[in-house]
Design a protein that fits this description.
The chain has one domain: 3-Layer(aba) Sandwich (Rossmann fold), CATH 3.40.50.300. It contains ten helices and twelve strands. A hairpin with a 4-residue loop joins strand 9 and strand 10. The longest helix has 16 residues. It starts with 18 loop residues before the first strand and ends with a helix. The strands form three sheets. It has a six-stranded mixed β-sheet, sandwiched between helices. By secondary structure, the protein is of the alpha/beta class.
């Protein structure tokens, strides 16, 4: 398998969170949606953001990517306060964050290769560099043969994998996933989870993953990708011990629960138990 185009160099000191929300509020005309969120994501950690529809999961991801600015509170990422930064500075910051949008969000009129290359072209990267880098990320998601196809010619799972390739093209140390397995069959969902495991366990990518599927969170918590055998395995390893997975549950715009997979699984709380059914 080819190495993904990712880098952890921008994460800086391991003692500093890769992402940090402090008393973040965000609302619209209908009123506040996020109500005082405070949490951190450590380098190489995966934080699973759970919640019902409308609880603010996608808004949290957009705040982490600098696509939205909070009404109050601060968002820090990669050692810098991105709250209220000028758009010019945010454009530079976003090159260090990959975003896998729900349903893929590919441009229908562009080929797979053009979709993946889009951010590089925006940055005026030379054609000589774009081609090899597009090939690299498509090989990582095992879709190099689709480079000249249109999104309409791909299955739903393939489109989601192209979206991951596009998110990786700038070699980000952080990747944000918005419901990456939503609407996919179990086998295709496992393919997506395997890609996320590879990025986490082999290349140390930090992840914030929003989902309503608890099984995705437990798959990331209980399995690791073994580069020696190129397979997903359940047995823990010293290498995967650093790849911590935690759960954060949103309810009514607030943090209802934050903790380990074991704490989530063993909680007697009736609301949390609904996610386990």
């Amino acid at each position: 398998m080819s190495a993904p185009p990712t880098s952890t160099a921008a994460l800086g000191s391991s003692s500093e969170p890769a992402l940090d929300f402090s008393d973040v509020w965000l609302g619209f005309e209908e009123g506040p949606i996020l109500r005082g969120l405070s949490f951190s994501v450590q380098p190489r950690e995966t934080l699973i953001l759970l919640g019902e529809t409308g609880t603010g999961k996608t808004l949290t991801l957009k705040l982490a990517a600098g696509l939205l600015c909070p009404d109050s509170g601060t968002v820090r990422a990669l050692g810098q306060d991105i709250t209220g930064k000028p758009e010019r500075e945010l454009l530079e910051f976003r090159r260090q964050v990959g975003f896998v949008f729900q349903e893929g969000a590919l441009f229908d009129s562009l080929t797979v290769g053009e979709n993946v290359a889009y951010r590089l072209e925006e940055d005026h990267v030379s054609e000589e560099e774009i081609g090899p880098r597009v090939g690299e990320v498509l090989r990582f998601v095992e879709l190099e043969h689709t480079v000249d196809l249109l999104p309409s010619e791909l299955s739903g799972g393939m489109r989601r994998r192209v979206s991951i390739a596009r998110a990786l093209i700038t070699r980000p140390p952080i990747v944000l996933y918005d419901s990456p397995t939503a609407g996919l069959d179990p086998i295709t969902s496992q393919t997506i989870i395997t890609l996320i495991l590879r990025l986490r366990d082999v290349y140390g990518v930090t992840a914030l993953l929003a989902t309503h599927r608890l099984q995705d969170g437990f798959a990331l918590a209980n399995f690791h990708f073994d580069p020696a055998t190129r397979t997903v395995r359940r047995e823990p390893t010293p290498e995967s011990a650093a790849a911590i997975t935690r759960f954060l549950v949103l309810r009514d715009g607030r943090i209802y629960f934050e903790g380990s997979p074991t704490a989530m699984l063993e909680s007697p709380d009736p609301y949390l138990r609904r996610f386990l059914i």
